[in-house]
C-alpha cells in the first residue's frame, strides 16, 4: 500500500500529498508546536493550535491565517470503503473499581457532564491515592458509591448515560 495522504483544508480544498513530497519540505521546529517551513523559496511560520490525533484533524496557523486540516491516508480510505469506521469500538458505559480500596472523594454528581480525563473520584488503595478519570465525554447517570465506602475490586462505581 502506498503512503499517500489526502489533505482537506477548511472543508473544501483537497490536496494529494505523497511521502516523497513531504521529504522535500525544509521544516525546522522552532518551539513547542511551532515550525518554520521553506517551500519553493517561500517562507512559512506554522503553529499547531489544536491537534485531534484520533480523528486526524488539525488547526494550523500559517503566516497568521488559520486553517482546519484533515488528513486521510490509504488505510483510512480503505476502511471507509469497507463500511467501517475508526474508533468504532465498544463504548464505555460504566466504571468499575480496578482494585479494592476506600473512596476518599467523589468529584462529580448525577447529571453532571464530564469530559475525557476529568477526575471522577479518588480511590485509596495500599496507602496510595488513585485518581479515577473519565474514559470518555458523557453525562453521569448514577454514582453507586459514597465517600468513605470500602469497595472490592470490580465493584460498580459510576455509570454513564
UniProtKB/TrEMBL annotation:
It comes from Sediminicola luteus. InterPro entries: Biotin_BS (IPR001882), Biotin_Carboxyl_Carrier/Decarb (IPR050709), Biotin_lipoyl (IPR000089), Single_hybrid_motif (IPR011053). Pfam families: Biotin_lipoyl. Keywords: Biotin. Residues 79-161 form the Lipoyl-binding domain. It comes from the Bacteria. Gene3D superfamilies: 2.40.50.100. This is Acetyl-CoA carboxylase biotin carboxyl carrier protein subunit.
Amino acid at each position: 500500500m502506498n503512503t499517500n495522504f489526502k489533505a482537506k483544508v477548511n472543508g473544501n480544498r483537497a490536496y494529494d500529498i505523497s511521502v516523497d513530497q513531504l521529504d522535500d519540505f525544509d521544516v525546522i521546529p522552532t518551539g513547542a508546536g511551532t515550525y518554520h517551513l521553506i517551500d519553493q523559496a517561500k517562507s512559512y511560520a506554522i503553529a499547531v493550535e489544536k491537534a485531534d490525533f484520533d480523528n486526524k484533524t488539525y488547526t494550523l496557523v500559517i503566516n497568521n491565517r488559520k486553517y482546519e486540516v484533515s488528513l486521510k491516508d490509504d488505510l483510512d480510505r480503505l476502511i471507509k470503503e469497507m463500511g467501517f469506521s475508526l474508533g468504532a469500538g465498544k463504548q464505555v458505559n460504566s466504571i468499575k473499581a480496578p482494585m479494592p480500596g476506600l473512596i476518599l472523594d467523589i468529584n462529580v454528581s448525577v447529571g453532571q457532564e464530564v469530559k475525557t480525563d476529568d477526575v471522577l473520584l479518588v480511590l485509596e488503595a495500599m496507602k496510595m491515592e488513585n485518581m479515577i478519570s473519565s474514559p470518555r465525554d458523557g453525562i453521569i447517570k448514577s454514582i453507586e458509591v459514597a465517600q468513605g465506602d470500602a469497595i472490592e475490586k470490580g465493584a460498580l462505581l459510576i455509570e454513564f448515560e
